[in-house]
Each structure stands twice: as C-alpha cells, then as structure tokens.
Design goal:
By secondary structure, this protein is of the alpha/beta class. The protein is built from 8 helices and 9 strands. The chain has a single domain, classed as 3-Layer(aba) Sandwich (Rossmann fold).
C-alpha cells in the first residue's frame, strides 16, 4: 500500500466530503456516538482531527465541553473551523502535560498512523485516571472500506496503514481496560443507515478506560 504524504488537494477533497449532505450526516452521527460517552463538561482531545468537522458537531452537541484537535497535517488544519482549537503535532509526541484530558478520541485516524501503539501510549499519558479513550475506525470488512481500498488513488488506498481490527484492538486494550466494542453506521452510495452488523457497518468503535 502507498502511504504518500498528504497533499493540499487531498486535504480539500477530504474536507469537502463533510460539506456534502451525506458527509454532514456522517459527521453528526459520529459526533453523537462520541457525545454519548462524554460528561457534559469534559475536556476532550481529538487526535488526527483532520479538518475538525466532527469536532465542530461535537461542540454543538456538548457546548460546555472543551475540545482540542491535533493533527500532523498543516493542510488539514488550515481547513478547520475557527470554533475548534487545533494544534499541529504528532500523535506519538503530544505537546500536553500528563493527566489533563477527560477523554481522547480518534475519529477514523488511528488506523492511518504508522505506530498506533505509540500513539495510544501518549493518549494514556495525557488522560486523567478513569479517563476514556474512544476510537472510531473504518471497518475493513465493510463494503464502504473495500470499495475505497480498491479504488486507485483513493484516500484510503494511499494512506491506510492498518487494514485489520486486531492490530488496533491490541494497541488499545494493552493499555486500557475494555469498556465496549461496537459496530455502527452503514455508509452507502445512497446515504447512511444505522447498522450493527460486523460485515456491513462502516465504523468499528472501541472504548477503553484508563485505570
């Protein structure tokens, strides 16, 4: 697989998805999945936030939360809305003190990172005791993922690093106590619908707690 550096055009294409009707619905649903797992006034770090459209929706749902987005890509962060605070940094080297966040989220980002174990270790460091880690990853068994992976030049094809669930589960649950694993949301050409099938759902959610 190709893991080429992200171009400005790719960043714009990625952000444009969330401006279209289906992308807006996906962002809302992803934000709802996160909001359901957060206290009303949580301090949240989103790692690999990209253009921060899901984080924007999360702020709408949880206006009393403090949300910080982190991404390694300057091109992605340039497209983030002004309502979301962001900083450019690597997931493996977060520029924050230890124990300062109530929750850390990865929204379709951890599977695109070269060293998810190191990223999760940093997440563990910056979380408070009993803090939550929530990972929303693309489900590699889904038609949505398979179609994207087969398409030459697609974002998934060019940048995905991990195409199996097991490596992400290992990175997460080696450091965090398991809370839940769930499948959500089938994304199709026609739109989106709720789905909990491991074969059809487009998203796989992992939740762990720092002890």
């Amino acid at each position: 697989m190709n893991t080429s550096p992200l171009t400005g055009e790719e960043a714009r294409d990625y952000a444009d998805f969330y401006l279209r009707e289906k992308g807006k619905m996906v962002a809302v649903r992803e934000a709802e999945l996160l909001a359901a797992r957060l206290p009303e006034d949580a301090t949240v770090l989103s790692v690999g936030c990209g253009p921060a459209r899901v984080e924007e929706e999360l702020l709408r749902l949880r206006p009393h939360c403090t949300i910080m987005g982190v991404d390694v890509s300057r091109e992605m962060l340039a497209l983030a809305p002004p309502s979301v605070a962001t900083v450019q940094a690597e997931a493996e080297h977060l520029p924050f003190a230890s124990g300062v966040f109530d929750a850390v989220a990865y929204i379709a980002s951890l599977e695109f990172m070269g060293n998810p174990s190191a990223a999760v270790a940093e997440s563990h460091r910056v979380l408070r005791p009993q803090g939550r880690l929530v990972v929303l990853m693309l489900n590699p068994r889904s038609a949505y993922f398979r179609q994207g992976y087969r398409r030459p030049g697609s974002y998934i094809r060019r940048h995905i690093r991990h195409t199996d669930v097991a490596s992400i589960e290992d990175a997460v649950f080696r450091r965090f106590a398991p809370v839940s694993t769930e499948y959500h949301l089938e994304i199709t050409p026609a739109g989106i619908r709720e789905c909990s099938s491991p074969e059809r759902a487009s998203l796989y959610l992992l939740e762990g707690q720092r002890e």
